[in-house]
Write a structure and sequence with these properties.
Number of strands: 4
Number of helices: 2
Strand order of the largest sheet: 2-3-1-4
Shape: elongated
Order of helices and strands: EHEHEE
Helix content: 10-25%
């Protein structure tokens, strides 16, 4: 949803969690924990590039060059929804 004031502009931070289905081959201990890191394809940098480009093309942000902070992770999730959880916010405060 594009804000009423137009695309977000200025320094932005983006946080993304990519949630993949957990393979049945995972041990029962890992499956009971409900999640595990996904250390296989697809590449995290390519997923992030697709998200950032989509945020621009969808009109949510003015340009993906405005993203100055990016935190991303890939996880496997058991028995719940899969997809991407994306948060975009103005980047405020001091550096470091």
């Amino acid at each position: 949803m594009v804000p009423d004031s137009g695309p977000l502009d200025g320094p932005l931070k983006v946080t993304v969690t990519f949630r993949f289905p957990m393979p049945q081959s995972r041990s029962s201990v890992v499956r009971r924990s409900g999640w595990a890191w996904r250390a296989t394809k697809p590449d995290l940098d390519k997923l992030c590039r697709a998200v950032c480009d989509s945020l621009t093309q969808g009109g949510l942000i003015a340009d993906d060059a405005r993203i100055v902070q990016l935190h991303a992770e890939k996880v496997e999730i058991a028995n719940t929804w899969h997809g991407a959880e994306i948060t975009v916010a103005p980047c405020t405060g001091d550096w470091l």
